[in-house]
Write a structure and sequence with these properties.
Number of strands: 7
Largest sheet: 7 strands, antiparallel
Structural class: alpha+beta
Shape: globular
Distance between the termini: 51 Å
Helix content: 25-40%
Length: 147
């Protein structure tokens, strides 16, 4: 009986350690919602939709991280701080072999590949972060939808 109580106590303690270690931090929080301004701008742009269809069909992307590109500081990042430009980054564990498909930012009303302004090592980090930060789905017609 004492042995069974000891094992039960050990199991409960182990479960508590696992739960505490795996939850409750900002790292496990859900991705921030995509700014509607950025979604609308992408979905209303024929060239962006063509790129979205390309990424869905040939790169098999089903989701992306949409937010504002913050380029101040040592590394660019995607956030909900509207002081940046709208950006769409397609999540991938390593850099897309076609670097121009990794992501886009809206510049003067046009969606420009991030590869035109950032080195491949930076794109690789943005793509890796977009896996956990994904906040939209990419449809076969190239449109982005919250989710």
């Amino acid at each position: 009986m004492i042995f069974a109580v000891g094992i039960a106590t050990l199991l409960v303690a182990s479960l508590i350690v696992i739960l505490v270690a795996s939850g409750g931090s900002d790292e496990t929080a859900l991705a921030s919602p995509a700014p509607s301004e950025c979604l609308n701008n992408w979905n209303d742009d024929d060239a962006a939709l063509v790129q979205g269809r390309h990424n869905r069909t040939f790169h098999q992307y089903e989701s992306a991280q949409v937010g504002y590109l913050q380029s101040a500081g040592p590394e660019p990042r995607i956030s909900n701080d509207s002081t940046g430009t709208c950006a769409v980054v397609f999540g991938r564990a390593d850099l897309d072999p076609e670097a121009e498909a990794a992501g886009f930012s809206e510049v003067s009303g046009a969606w420009v590949p991030l590869s035109e302004g950032y080195a491949t090592n930076v794109l690789s980090v943005l793509q890796a972060e977009a896996i956990a930060g994904a906040n939209v789905t990419l449809s076969s017609d190239g449109e982005l939808a919250p989710g």
